[in-house]
Amino acid sequence: MLTGFLASCSGDKNGNQILFSVDEDIKLGQQVSSEVDSTYRAKGQLLERSSSDPRVKAAYAHLDKIVNRIIATGKVSYRDEFAWDVKIVNDPNNLNAFATPGGHIYVFTGLIKNLDTEDELAGVLGHEIAHADQRHTMKQLQKQYGIAFISKLVLGDNAGEVERIAGQIAGQLAGLKFSRDYERESDDFSVVYLGATNYYACDGAAGFFQKMQTLENQGTPPEFISTHPSPGNRIQDIKAEAQKQGCKTSSANNTQYQAFKQNLGL
């Protein structure tokens, strides 16, 4: 079964030769997202989209607007195939965000609380969208776990085994460390995405990394630093990419962003 599967592999929309199809990304993403939802729901930390609380509804409407601005640029290869749903995890002490295969994005309230502008948050979201759109998670899992392991998950018929492996991956996904090349690529795409919105400062991610660097220098490195390379030259690289792209670097209006934070009690 695996031999026939590998033989059918071909390039994807990004020109990558990857051993798993986009359908496998989507399937794995659904399984992992389900496990992540269950984990944070059990802890009472997942803010449900079905909530009747008008503040939660307003917060999701605002977050969706940011994501949709990025997706609508036409720069996201899998904008029609992937879910691109974003969920809020209520953990004020966790400055993190991550994306599963297939475009399921998780943002922690600790991150939102510590960002001063919508450009910075859009920069982070653009970075995570790029990880999913460039299929970095599947590539990294393929390297980390091996082809047979991932094949067992995405092709397996044993529901119990699939659930066990999905849970194993979900438990490590927030801590998955991408290669520096993948991180650099996601930083660059964040600039491209934000620039194409004609709304956000395209170097918004640089402001985010400046904040992370300040916290790191103060001896309180956020969770994001443990799973992403230290800001270091990334700030300068993002600004250099923005200059190369010639895109707008002035900030968007942040009045609504402050209201968004207030709706989350931040």
Structural summary, described in words:
It is a single chain. With 266 residues, this protein is mainly alpha-helical. The protein has one domain. It contains 13 helices and four strands. The protein has a four-stranded mixed beta sheet with strand order 1-2-4-3. Helix 3 packs across helix 13, helix 5 packs across helix 9 and helix 9 packs across helix 12. The radius of gyration is 18 Å and the shape is globular. The termini are far apart. GO terms for molecular function: metal ion binding; metalloendopeptidase activity. Belongs to the peptidase M48 family.
Short synopsis of the structure:
Its cofactor is Zn(2+). By secondary structure, the chain is mainly α.
Proportion of residues in helical segments: 55-70%
Assess the beta-strand content as a share of residues.
Answer: 5-15%
Whole-Å distance between the termini? Answer: 51 Å
What class would the helix/strand composition place it in? mainly alpha
| Spatial strand order of the main sheet | 1-2-4-3
* Order of helix and strand elements from N to C terminus: HHEHEEEHHHHHHHHHH
Supply Rg: 18 Å
Biggest pleated sheet: 4 strands, mixed
Rounded average pLDDT: 85
Shape: globular
Low-confidence stretches: 1-8
Secondary structure tally: strands? 4
Tell me the count of domains.
Answer: 1
- Count of helices? 13
